[in-house]
Amino acid sequence: MSLRTVRWAGVALGALGVGLTLLFHWQVFFWVPTEASMGIVQRIFYIHLPGAWIAFLAFGIVAICSAVYLWLGDDKVDHAARAAAEGGLIFTTIVLTSGPLWGKIAWGTWWTWEPRLTLTLLLWFIYVGYFMVRNSTDNAERGKRFAAVVGIVGALNIPLIHMSVQWFRSLHPQPVVARPDGPNLHPDMLTTLLTALLAWTLVFFSLFLFRYAAARLESAEELRALTRASKAPGDEVPVP
Amino acid sequence: MNPNPSSPMRLFALSPKRRLPPLGPWVQGGLAGALIVLVAVLLLTPEALAAQGAGAAQARQMRHFWHVFAAYAIAWLLLFGWAVSIARRIRRVEEKLDRDP
């Protein structure tokens, strides 16, 4: 995919995403019915759940791109993995901040070390580690390979997070949408949730594409600087 | 921009007529506009929600509005921060390319 296509795809997805985001905020604050037992704090649900889904999607992209990078060694795939990892980290942070704000009202505590919360925090730390490992070595190629391994291993945590509420005794609610017998939600709530999910997915892919374009530009700029340095008489060529 | 045919930058070179506008303002401008609208919506929300009902139960529920506000504000600050960091990266590279073609 050319950089020109990436740019225009990013702009188009971003415009759609921002438009749908405004729509879902209208739905959340002016349209959807208030949940009976928890009251308005339940409206955090419309960013908490899509945030989690998009974080899982992003880390899934990281794992796939990392595996392809280890196989083919193509820098473009590594750029995509890094862009997705940044997005995944942002959305996991959203989940980890919106959850306690909701939990304080619903459970009476900001945080509890129950399986799903603990595993989600672990996921966040793993992908912080992804960036630390990447920058921990002077050899950039080695750093990318190590980070790719972390990216793959980290994604193994995602099914554990999803299944933790069924496998372990958990304070976290059971799934209300991804259930074998269908969603267990008021239709208006489901519509709002799906709008929010679509809006943030588009925003994520838009920013992901811009971040990928930035990484490719930076990489090309570094390569150009190396080429120029190697051509200048008397200059030493930096070893990558 | 008149790149050397052997330069890797030829991949990104466009004629002045076809050149795309810089990405930085696209990302920052769009999200800044959305953020302003969202903050306005969030500030108007307590009154809008209060209009949906009345009484002690409603008043108790409204106390929790600040948790909702904080959750949405943090989410948007994080996304906006990510967009700004991307826009700054792109602008830095584009300035380098313009300054030193």
Would you give an account of this structure?
The complex is a heterodimer of chains A (240) and B (101). Chain A has 240 residues and is mainly α. The longest helix of chain A is centred in the C-terminal third of the chain and has 45 residues, at 187-231. The mean pLDDT of chain A is 88. Chain A has seven helices and no strands. Chain A has a single domain, classed as Four Helix Bundle (Hemerythrin (Met), subunit A) (Up-down Bundle), CATH 1.20.120. With 101 residues, chain B is mainly α. Chain B has a domain at 35-99. Chain B contains three helices and no strands. The model of chain B is unreliable at 7-18 (pLDDT under 50). Chains A and B meet through helix 1, helix 2, helix 3 and helix 7 of A and helix 1, helix 2 and helix 3 of B.
Considering DSSP H and I runs of 4 or more, what fraction of the residues of chain B is helical? 55-70%
How does the major sheet of chain B shape up? none
CATH overall fold name of chain A: Four Helix Bundle (Hemerythrin (Met), subunit A)
| Annotation, overall tally of beta strands of chain B | 0
Radius of gyration of chain A: 21 Å
Mean pLDDT score of chain B: 69
Classify the secondary structure makeup of chain B into a structural class: mainly alpha
Q: What fraction of residues of chain B sit in β-strands?
A: under 5%
CATH class of chain A: Mainly Alpha
Q: What is the overall number of helices of chain A?
A: 7
| Low-pLDDT regions of chain A | none
Number of domains of chain A: 1
> pLDDT average of chain A, as an integer?
88
Note the quaternary state here: heterodimer
